[in-house]
Amino acid sequence: EKLRKYRMLQRIIPVAITLLVIIPGYCVRKHNISKLYSRRNFTIEFQNNFLEMAEYFIKHFDLSTPAYNQFMHDVDAIHLELGRDSIAGYMHDNLTGATVREYQPLANIVNEMRMAMSLGRNSIVLSRLVQAIGNCDDILRRHVGNLDRMIKDEEKDLHNPFVCFGEGIRAIIRTPGKILVWLGLLSDNHEQTFYGSIFFKIIGWIVTVIGFISAIMTIVLGWDQFRDIVGRLF
Fold first, then answer.
1. Burial level of 221, CB count in 10 A (0-12/13-18/19+)?
2. How many C-beta atoms surround the C-beta of residue 98 within 10 A?
3. Cβ-proximal residues to 170 (8 Å cutoff; 6+ apart), any chain
4. What is the pLDDT of residues 198-208, one digit of tens each?
5. What is the pLDDT of residues 143-162, one digit of tens each?
6. Any idea what DSSP says for residue 83?
7. What is the pLDDT of residue 60?
8. Do residues 93 and 111 touch, judged by C-beta distance below 8 A?
9. Residue 132 CB: number of other CB atoms within 10 A?
10. What is the C-alpha to C-alpha distance for residues 223 and 8, in angstroms, rounded to an integer?
């Protein structure tokens, strides 16, 4: 009876340890999905407000609106959110005939509107302004699409135990860095740069694979037999 309980305990403990890694990994992925939805909602709210501001401006050539105030309040935040998505492929200037590459429509849209106000209503100015507004709308729509794909990828693997196990392992490995950030001994940017590096990803992948295989073998064979196998190998 004692032997049976002992063998059962040898299997229960590794199951419990594995679950203690998988559950935090699942929670991390849920948190990541929640953050992605928040980013998506912010982008859509910014886009709707921008289109309201643009529509009013096209009709009245006036920026003194609550939508403009909200735009200026959030424009720096949306640039941080968009990252490389804030860059359009190019912009053709109908006034000068020049083509600008690596153009950032949102960073220049207010200047475009102010220039339109100073030049007055004419077909070239309106054409340039409509193009600039369209570019802004395009990059916001594109970013929402990218976020949708990221959400889909995260949700697809949400209930995959191996993926959640790996996420849990990475969370455990990142704990020392998080503690250093909380203590003020390491900047958040440096912590994210290190743990986002290829080196860390390779180490995390290796630890995940070894840990997952070890957990399965320990559950199936029991701790004593697994220890004997490892002992013979090394």
1. middle
2. 9
3. 25, 195, 204, 208
4. 877 787 778 77
5. 999 999 999 999 998 888 88
6. G
7. 87
8. no
9. 24
10. 10
